[in-house]
Fold this protein.
Amino acid sequence: MGRHIILGFVLLFLLLLGIAQLGLCGRCIESEKQALLKFKASVHDDSSKSLSSWNPKTNCCQWDGIACDNVTGHILKLDLSYYSLQATGVDPSLLELQHLIYLDLCANNFNAISIPAFFGSMGRLRYLSISRSNFTGKIPTNFGENLTTLQFLDLSLNDLDINDMNWVSKLQSLQYLNLSDVYLGEAHNLFQVLHKLPSLSQLQLEGCGLGNLSAPLPPFNFTNNTRVQVLNLAQNEIDGRILDVFLNWTFVEFLDLSSNNLSSMPLWLGEFRNLVSLDLSYNALCGPMPIALSNLTSLKYLDLSVNNFSSIPSWLGELRNLRHLDISMNQVTATLEISVSQLLKNMCRLQILYMEGGNFQGEAFGDCDFSRCIKYDIEELYLSDNRLNGHLPTWVGNLEKLNGLDLSQNYFSGDIPQSLGQLSNLYSLNLSSNSFTGNIPQSLGQLSNLDSLDLSSNSFSGNVPQSLGQLLNLYRLDLSNNSFVGNIPQSLGQLSNLRRLDLSGNSLSGNIPQSLVHSANLTTLDLSSNFLSGNILESLCQLGNLYILDLSGNSLSGNIPQSLVHSTNLTILDLSSNFLSGNVPESLCQLVNLEVLDLSNNSISGNIPQSLGQLINLKDLNLSRNSFRGHIPQGLCELINLTSLDLSHNNFYGEIPNCWRDNPSPGMKEINFHSINCLVPSLSLLVSFPH
């Protein structure tokens, strides 16, 4: 009983204490509230209502962007980042916030003013960010005199320039410095000052014009007293001259030298054994990859893309800790010294491998033993646009974490292995523009997460498998330019998320399946260059999201459906080279977004509707090789954006409208009236206009 009474008193005491603390926490200093309201009054545009909670009748410690001391009530933090505020300056009322340690004004608009000198008087600040806030001009020379406790400073993405860096040397507590996009091309004492910051661990100098620093640089005698771990020198047009100033910065773990003019890598870089991330992309590095890189065994991220390396060395496979490797877009002239299989076998933790557009040649996979790793972490394997050959091995089905596989534009051959259907995490599969043969395995229907499948421009044959209708997340399916036969599977109508369907350039036959009308999200439907027959489905033309409908080069018959009027988004309608007959429906004039209309090489008859002149966005109109008759309507002269008009091989009579002789459309490149029975006053049968 006594124990319960004591416990009750303890709980009551804690409750009263909590209420007391809540009262303190819930009450801000009146003078500081007034300072904030004065700042708010200086903002002339707060269209996003970011400061709507700043109500003078409420507790300022509960306002958005404000944090107070729980005991004293003083404002410690003002975070207005990404509030999209617009003001003609920063009101000096912020000086009233004498206990402020955190100030973030990032991503606002202060109307191209200079950085206020009073920022340098806010001596308690530990964090200051005014990134991308439209400050301009030079930084005050006394900016850092009182900011001796500042640990984080971000001035990036403003129109600033610095000639003298001495003010930075006063920031002895600084750990993070971001001057990206601040012009430092005339900061003669930049590197001397940086070496005087004992606590600096992150240095961001991207796009600072460091390549413009005068040469030769002053002599340095730097000792290894820096502890910088993150160094970003990207986009500086550095050609290598200044890099030696970083010779002793061996604590660096993340180094970005991308988008510069480096033609060779500093040899001492091989001594940076703490490097976890190295980006040398978008330079002019050439010849063999420097063997010094083989010393960087701690690397997890390596980007050597968009250079001119001539070979891929075998030692690359010894960087066993790599998670991300990008060697795309190089000018490799030798056969691979190490295959993709060997890379994957050595790098069990590799998650991303990009080898695109590098002119790599040789057998990519082979039949090597692939059982070295207990499991493989590879998630993205992109080898497109090379000269790689060989077949796709069965063991690819063991890469259970793979979500992106792109082997397009190579010389791969053979069948797709059934094991590919085991890749349950795959969301993108692109094998296009190779020499693959055989049937598509039914197992691909098991790839339930797949959203893009491109097998175009190969030599696949047989039927399109019904199992593809199980890929319910698919938004793009491209099987064009193969040798598929048989009917289009009805099951494809189950793909309700499908945006693009391209089955063109095959030998498919039969009718267009009725089930496709359920693919309501289709924006592109290309069934051209097959042997499809029957009528164009009325319901197919009611797909309101279609932008491109290409049914050309088939054996379709009957009339052009009136229901096309529902496809109001159509920009390209190509029904050419079929056996269509009847008249052109007047309803076509409602397709006001049409840019290309091709009805050529059919058996369409009657007059051209005068209303086609309402298709003001039309650029290409081809009605040739039909059985049109009557006069060419004057309404076509309203097609002011037309660049190509072909009415040849029809039965028109009368006179061709003078508009194409007297005042042709400025963009008109070609008019073809060949083999018609009209009078052509002062106009040749085939007229070409210059671009």
The chain has five helices and 46 strands. Confidence is low (pLDDT under 50) at residues 1-25, 682-691. The longest helix spans residues 2-25. Helices lie at 2-25, 30-42, 190-194, 340-346, 659-662.
